[in-house]
Amino acid sequence: MSKAPLLIEIGCEELPAASLGPMAAALAEGIRTVLAEEGVEIALRTGATPRRLLVWAREAPVMTPAREEVLWGPPARIGLDADGKPTKAALGFARKAGVAPEALAVEKRPGKEEDYLCARITRPGREVVQVLAEALPGILKNLPMPKRMRWAEGKARADEFLRPIRWIVARLGEAVIPFTYAGVKAGLRSEGHRVFGQAGELSPADPFAWLEDNFVITDVEVRKARIRKGARACAEEAGLVLVEDEALVAETAGLTEWPEPVLCRFDADFLELPEEVVRITLKHHQRCFVVQDEKGRLAPAFVAVANVPLARVADPETIRQGYERVVRARLADAMFYFRRDPEIPLARRVEMLRGIVYQDGLGTLHDLSMRLAAFAKRAAADWGLAPEKAERAASLCKADLTTGLVHEFPELQGYMGGVYARMDGEDEEVAAAIAEHYKPEDAEDAMPASRHARAIGVAERADRILGLFALGERPTGARDPFGLRRAAIGLVRLLADEETRFPWSLERVFAEAEKLLATMPPMLSSLDAPREEAVAFVQERFLGLAKDYKVARASLAAALAATSERPLWAHLAVARLLDRFATTPEGQAAAEANKRAANLLRKAGVKEAPAPEMAALSE
Questions:
Q1: Which of 135, 419, 455, 482 could form a disulfide linkage to 34, CB 3.0–4.6 angstroms apart?
Q2: In this predicted structure, what is the pLDDT of residue 601?
Q3: pTM of the model
């Protein structure tokens, strides 16, 4: 069978870094699936940069193989009369299948007990070019995209993509795969690096070499390795140590086609800023790596990742100066606010929260702070903590949202609250609780060391979930604009921690949150506060984390079903006991007996088993 290299490249405006991998993989999978349905199996290699998605096969058949299809008709008892001649049903099936009635066969149909009429049809092979031309528009339209864009006119406006498409290369050997998407017709010409590359015909024989000659590295893993090696070398040459950050490596690899790490510097005076402020400025705002001196102290330098071949730049120093100029301006802004913000202590800033709406229907940030303070005080008392410290930390924990530094750098909320609390002379436990009360921010984030922070974190998550449920803002499908699923996971992690052992059950947590929300204006207190629904929502997230907690979901479900009065960490302990019991001979015998009882009840038409007589049980 004749074969030729297959090449698909979708050139577009810069794609988000996080979308590159999933989109390239989905493009390859879509092509692989379409060809597999035609009996063609091929090995595909993918490439992805901010400006392109690429799929390539060294060899792909030019034609799909001929295939025999079996079309099933009516049962033989319906399709044939007593003399074995075809009935009207058989004749209709033959016409539909496009075969003569005498060509029909009687065979045993898989999964059926009786014989059926069938027609065996040989489908001739098709040109792979034509197969892909028909399939590619649909494949492109169905790629995973966080947001879809339309920019063309006429019929092409229905074709959506994450960013505007600028060119399409689609060919099998010398043949162009003829299709159009978003108003762009497939052809042979590609583009290299936006500044230093050339436009030209992209050969299917070795597209990666042509692109690399035009300063485009399509393999994201190669770009990552280049960034790691180059960034370390930059730091070492200056006698410094790079602060490793794999997440930043992945992000910068997704932002560049030809990454070139560059060592840059900033004024040492900026080291007066808290270290996290410098780190956030460099990483989150400029996508730069932090470096340290040999003693592990933050150094007045950083590594930026340029998207240009420095050897081709007339004056590479201008690249360095550009990064330094931007970082200097950002750090100067941070320094200005850092020096000005402490003029108003956090305690006075609490009143400023009255002017900031937390959520329509849930009051202001001041209202939220007061609810958190009341909740944290009660929880701390039952937890054996200092209630007055929990109350103080909770009342101050949102005050940093009124500062200029947090307004300019939102990622610093909480952290700067702790810094400013220490500058105000607040108790260290209060400052630590303020700094950590947002943790854990997701399923991977570290837990807060401060128990006072944990009490505040429980209070805020319960307040948000219950309050928004009362307002009708429940997550639906993939839609969760308020991050309630993430809040529920954070709540589970705080309540299920077996080392710190938060004292309240999930039911009690939401009962306390409900009491405090009831103090809100009539607009909210008159609404139905769906506490049971909120409890079930969080329990479902808890069950979803069973694997992470190394317990069987069924055991955890059984523990939750037994009582609502236990804290989540106690439910975990019960689930682990059930897991161990299930592996014992006694446990296996109990499971078998329960299964038999359930079968008997089902046969008897009993939909719900009667509650056990607890008084009849003994240890």
A1: 135
A2: 77
A3: 0.81
